[in-house]
Design a protein that fits this description.
single chain; 171 residues; alpha/beta; Rossmann fold; 4-stranded parallel sheet; two-stranded parallel sheet; globular
């Protein structure tokens, strides 16, 4: 759980929500305790039990359509998905079908699979909130972005490969 994930966890706890998470690596026990977070080794098992799914991961080849038709079917009919990470993580066609059929109750999106080109079928739905990309518009996220820029510039200036170098295969 990065800083953004931790900020989401704090907001969820402020609303009295339990925090559950799935990640490639489990957090340190101290971090879990601090956020009262429960780790799930299996994303599929976690999805079947959550009321609200907040997606907070980067877009990589491994996360492309991480939330697909099969995983949407695992979710509760009263579940809501919030995606503020990257649009390509969610298969929008499958999401639209799940929202139309009542397989899930709703979605809040501020990122889209095709950038600013929002799926017109999503626009027709009353159980979706669509926003311009604002997920990074928090003090914590902006500070983290600024720190990353400084680290990358300094690393490059020192003659080393920046840690957040854009890799062509990820474009």
């Amino acid at each position: 759980m990065g800083r953004i994930g931790q900020a989401v966890a704090r907001r969820a706890r402020a609303f009295g929500m339990q925090v559950h998470y799935h990640n490639r690596h489990r957090l340190h026990p101290e971090t879990e305790a601090e956020h009262e977070a429960t780790y799930w080794e299996s994303l599929d098992q976690m999805l079947a039990r959550m009321d609200v799914l907040s997606i907070n991961c980067p877009h990589t080849p491994a996360t492309f359509h991480l939330i697909n038709a099969r995983r949407l079917k695992l979710m509760k009919p009263e579940a809501v998905i919030v995606n503020t990470s990257r649009g390509q993580v969610v298969d929008e066609n499958a999401l639209t079908r799940a929202l139309r059929t009542g397989d899930i109750a709703g979605a809040g999106l501020d990122v889209y699979e095709h950038g600013t080109d929002i799926n017109p079928r999503l626009r027709e739905l009353l159980n979706v909130v669509l926003l311009p990309h604002m997920g990074s518009a928090t003090r914590e996220a902006r500070v983290e972005m600024g720190e990353k820029v400084l680290i990358n510039v300094k690393t490059f200036a020192d003659g080393h490969r920046p840690p957040d170098l854009v890799v062509p295969s990820m474009l």
